[in-house]
Amino acid sequence: xxxxxxxxxxxxxxxxxxxxxxxLKDLSQEALALQAGLSRTYVSEVERGMRNISIDNxxxxxxxxxxxxxxxxxxxxxxxxxxS
Length: 84
Description:
InterPro entries: Cro/C1-type_HTH (IPR001387), Lambda_DNA-bd_dom_sf (IPR010982), TransReg_Diox_bact_type (IPR050807). The chain is mainly alpha-helical. The protein has one domain (9-78): 434 Repressor (Amino-terminal Domain) (Orthogonal Bundle), CATH 1.10.260.40. Helix content is 64%, strand content 0%. It has helices spanning 10-24, 29-36, 40-47, 55-65, 69-73, 77-83. Helix 2 crosses helix 3 and helix 2 (29-36) packs across helix 4 (55-65). The chain is globular, with a radius of gyration of 13 Å.
């Protein structure tokens, strides 16, 4: 099986999209954590794919970024957001 055909886990897709969205909004991990009511360490672990995040906390982070949770789970989030 080639690398191109291997699908990233939903946790890693969320982690990558969370980091991209946070950077696009020009927010630090600390600022995002504060807005979401979470710790900076937790946000850092989520962005690195090290934390198995709950759906509730995913929602808190999406709300803090002003992005639909579904968008943070979409494999090509940036393309999807650019199209809307």
